[in-house]
Specification:
This protein has 116 residues and is of the alpha+beta class. The protein has one domain. Helices cover 29% and strands 34% of the residues. It has three helices and six strands, in the order ββαββββαα. β4 and β5 form a beta hairpin. The protein starts with 7 loop residues before the first strand and ends with a helix.
Length: 116
């Protein structure tokens, strides 16, 4: 038997994360879930395991409201190191979250536009 330590989202939710950025994005999406719930919309966050240790985390967001069909958005959280990311190695995503576009608000503006 082997054991290892891995960073997680938080103690009550055992969701492995690759970085502080991954943790920050999950926290923000959790707040989005709560906000949408107050308006009667459902938001499900599905964390997909990385395809390898060097690849980024993939998230799928599913949105549903009583008057709209379910919509899915695929995200990839890559951080700063894009050296291991070739187009052939990655499945298609709607938005690649990096430290830069997280910090400057580009991701938040993009998501707001998608949800509008």
């Amino acid at each position: 038997m082997q054991a290892c330590a891995i960073p997680i989202y938080r103690s009550r939710r055992f969701v492995p994360v690759n970085s502080d950025l991954g943790r920050d994005v999950l926290r923000a999406l959790e707040h989005l879930q709560v906000t949408l719930d107050a308006y009667g919309a459902e938001c499900t966050i599905r964390c997909e395991p990385p395809f390898s240790d060097t690849m980024a985390r993939h998230l799928t967001l599913s949105f549903a409201a009583t008057d709209h069909a379910i919509r899915e958005i695929r995200l990839e959280i890559a951080g700063d190191d894009l050296s291991n990311h070739s187009d052939m190695a990655r499945p298609p995503v709607d938005f690649l979250v990096t430290s830069k576009n997280w910090a400057d608000g580009t991701f938040t503006r993009w998501l707001a536009g998608v949800l509008a």
